[in-house]
Batch of 2 targets.
Target 1
Amino acid sequence: MLTAALFGARVAAGTAAFAALTAWTADAAAQPAAKKTIAVRIDGTDAAEVRKAVIAAAPEGVTVVEPRAFDAALRKAGQSKLGNLLSTKKGRDKVLGRVRKAMKEVKADAAVLGVVQRWKGKPRVYLVWVNADDEDLPFDEGVEIAGGDDARDQAIASALEPSMKKLAPPAAADTKPAGADVKADAAGDKPGEDEDDDDDETPTEGRVRHEAGSSIFAVELGFEVGGRQFDYSDGLSPDTRRDYGVFGAPMASIALEVYPAAGTDIPVLKHLGITGSYARAFGLSSSTEGGEPAPTTYQRISAGLRGRIPFSGPKGPVLGINGGIRMVTFEIEEPALLAGEVPDVDYFALRGGIDGVIPIGRVSILAGFDWLEPLKTGEVYGRFREASVHGIGAMAGVGVRIAGGFEVRLLGEYSRFFSDFNPVLGDPHVAGGALDQFFGIRLAGAYVE
């Protein structure tokens, strides 16, 4: 009995130990594998949307480093931006070395780097997958993202799927489809939650060269065929029954826009620009009905500030809000026959208005409108009692990109000054008002940086 009892006790003890070991093994097996961590950095147009697509492709069990933390680590490592350095394989080893240093700082197992750019006229994102534990780059190529948001997200998810599966824990890789939501990171923020703020945090992320929505400067040189038509309304005195008109005046023009803070991350100032333009007719001469010549000076000057509002990133439509001055001078060396009767003007006007650029591939549609409030009008209006003068200006045309930031523009411009007079009986010059119109067609070359 003792032997049997001892044997039974030993069996019971062994059974209990086996059960405990089995339970411990089961518990250990049930513990999830250590979570992997991935960092994401995208530069260029629509970077925030592309980053969201990359993050959405990460399977369950992969934690995404908070964007600000990774950006700060990159700057600390000496890499403030990535840009086209990613797609230039030669000489980018230093960049990847700094990236790996930043990955170590944020304890990332992998990083997805990208730059949105145009390639052979089509949008693409060049993606590079960097692992922390080896020098191989599992993914290192461009992904076309044309065709809308859904097509873009699907293309990115498909391109990164093999690498994402290797990064994910086995159970997550089998059960988590690409594109599902990613859990919050250690900081408690959901990936992509602060994307807009992150764009402001990175100084150069939203700037794209040669685009109207993020340019540092733009310069235009042109040749214009200009004209003018001046008419009185309800003219009763002899001089107000004569109209003046000219068209075909050759003119040279230059225009400049400069955005001093465009390369910074200052939200308002980076889109505030200084504008200026100058145009002058050459070889222009007027004449009387008898053919007597009268040398004529025609020029216009504009200067002011422009605030631009880009829609859909730097490559999308841009709305401009303008304020400044415009000066228009048209002076005729009057012949003796018409002394005191020629329509000389010297407008100095406050200007406020809007303009827009709508890009469609290589073509851009340009348009603008100004309200002009003259502070000074010139000699012709001084002949009339209580002259009230106002004006408007309009512009429309197209631009065609040739290469890089160079483009050709065809523009039409129109300015109209309208006035009312208040004559009384006995005045030497009597009319109800006047209409002064300036118009031109300009062919120009431009460079946008």
Target 2
Amino acid sequence: MKSGVTCFLFVFLVFMGIVSGGWFWSTPRLVEATQFLMDTSVTIKIFYSDKTKGESLLKKAFDEGVRIEHIMEPLKGSGELWKINASKDVSEWTVGDDLWRVLERSRYFYELSGGAFDPTIAQVKWLWDFEGDGHIPDMRDIQEKLRSVGFSHVELNDHHIRFGNPETRLDLGGVAKGYAVDRMVAVLKENGVKSGLVNAGGDIYYFGKKPGNADWVIGVRHPRLSRTIMIDTMPFPTVATSGDYERFFIKDGVRYHHILDPSNGYPARGCISVTVWAENAMDADILSTTIFVLGPEKGLAFAESLGNVETLIFFEKNGKVEAVMSSGVKDKVNL
């Protein structure tokens, strides 16, 4: 009788060990959270077997996003970029690794695009107000501030930055969010997450497979209709969209949006929406803005010339919404 009890206890303890060890819960479960960062809603989703630990990993990723936001904030706080923009008597600054990576990549695409992507648009950008009823700056003010625009005014040398024009300032709104997404995903991967997604207001990085070996399905918002365009699996893990419907106001029947053309200081007029797939979120973020400024024809040619991105471009012609797309997207999109 004693041996029977012992056997029962042994089996029971083994069973409890299996349960507590996670055999019955080994299938990863969805753990997600949303916070407001970088002036947008940021959602992180991961599949993880331990919900409590998964939530702690989400916090680590959000903390990284907060850290990057602090560094890249141009007009408030006490971060690196704010200090550079606020300074009036310092001619050279030493910057940390994060800001340096963003500045180097910004210069690369500034040169490659012939100035279509230019973070030195800051002084002009700050004249506009796209909130509420909106504000159109005086043309003379725009012309004056345009004198400070041009990444050619920015000298970068071994983690040092200098402005050739003392009036030049930087706004990294077209790149910082993508970089933050890359860093948040890096934190998740470094901590053992195998499957997840970070969505920062349309800048998306997804990795791994969902349970059942299912792919992540990414939808693209139609710029004028209340519907989502579903996209088949793409070869790149990141996607970003820039649209004239995100931050805008309408005056006298004209839509004024926040994506400015660095050549004239006014909203770029060629496109209404640009989606880009790339190998990292920083590049996707930069390129969605760059292609938007270049317009449909030049933007599509630019994307095709890069060889490692895909794009879907919406524009208006004769009152109708039309679209063009790179070769790698054509068989994956049903408009």
